[in-house]
Fold this sequence. Notes:
membrane; PSII_Assembly/Photoprotect-Rel; transmembrane; transmembrane helix
Amino acid sequence: MSLALSSTRCPTFQSASQTRTARRRVAVAAQASSDPLLQKPVARPAEQPSSSEPAAAAAAPAAAHAPAAAAAPSAAASGVTIEYQRQQAKAMRQYFQNLKLTETVEKSKVFGWTRKNEISNGRWVMMGLLVGLMTEYATGVSFIDQLKLMGSYMGLLDLD
């Protein structure tokens, strides 16, 4: 008899990747249960014909549509009706319209703290520092002294 180790693992021990995968599934399931757009539709009870209609009138259309009903599952059995689909389509359309509007408003901002303005402002500052450092290298006058000189030439500072 050979005492070779089996390649199967005990089901109570899981690898780290299996544990992470299981945790992700639980997290996604928790998110889906809290978000109403990600929940499965709930089947509504089928409407019963009113008692004032005769039973024969209700049976005649049912007999005429019996082959079609047998071929495809009914809307009540699947839980998704045309009206439910229409409501969900309207909600999705409204959601994406709001998303598009928000994106358009963010892109159309010209003044203020926008990403585009901050990037261009940062580039101009880097260019100014580069010019100041290159001038300091060429003339031997420090960057601060250059600012003082510029202010006195423009009449903004009186350094005498």
